Amino acid sequence: MASLIMGCGVSIKPLEQPPKLVTAPEYIRIKFDRITNQPVLNLISTAEMDDRAERLLEQALLNYKTMGFQHITAPSDRRLVRLKHIFDRVHNYSHLKDSPIKVVLIENPIFQAYTFGGGAVVFYTGLTEELDDDQLAAVIGHEIAHIAANHIAEETSRSLVNTETGYWRPHLTGFYALNAEMEADQIGLVYATLAGYAPDASVTFWAEQSDHQGHDMLNPFADSHPTYQDRAKYLQENADKLSRLPRNISEEKRQELMLCNPIYCKQ
Fold first, then answer.
1. Beta carbons of 263 and 242 less than 8 angstroms apart
2. What are the tens digits of pLDDT across the range 236-252?
3. How distant, in Å, are the alpha carbons of 33, 176, 205, 207 from that of 36?
4. E-strand spans in the chain?
5. How close are the terminal C-alpha atoms of the chain, in Å?
6. What pTM, to 2 d.p., does this model score?
7. What are the extents of the domains in the chain?
């Protein structure tokens, strides 16, 4: 089985010259994550990130066209129909249920999904053709969680803030991306579970990936993503918590659990 890449889709590359000091840390206004209520660093407005994400998506679609990868838009395509159906269910139990998110499907056999942080998520057909519904729901939840938690804006902000010496240290961005991936796994797991999908589906997938890749010895994303083995472990712990929830719960209760549940709770 091919390896799966789930991430924010944005790579913050080191600048040729260290940027000037943006602002001293003591003058940065701390914001709080709207999902977990944890303090976060975010210097970029939602409108600015949405505009940036739209431009990046347009460029990505042009690049796919140039490389010969088809952007699947036919309403009758079974892969797109299935993807949108599962996406809509998971989206309905997310913090962005009232915000439209475009589903973009690219003809490519690789297991990959990503978002630029705006109102769209890009999927490759390798996901729709190989993953079952429960596993695909976990991937969808992960990507929606990246948008809901403003991970791309936070990571970009972190790359703009200098240390006390006035120089940017790129390794801080990688560390932050690792935490964002773990958080998106956990939040996405809640979304998928509340939508009616098996919470342990992603656990099985990552455990298989760990065995297939030799415990991540060949994982090119190990610096910014949790190892497959670690992912399977902490997702199992979270899946166990969610599995204790009643199976037949009301719509009202599902919406309440989206805001406060055994994994995170914002009162």
1. yes
2. 999 999 998 887 889 99
3. 6, 16, 26, 27
4. 4-7, 31-32, 39-40, 71-72, 102-106, 111-114, 120-124
5. 41
6. 0.80
7. 4-9+21-259
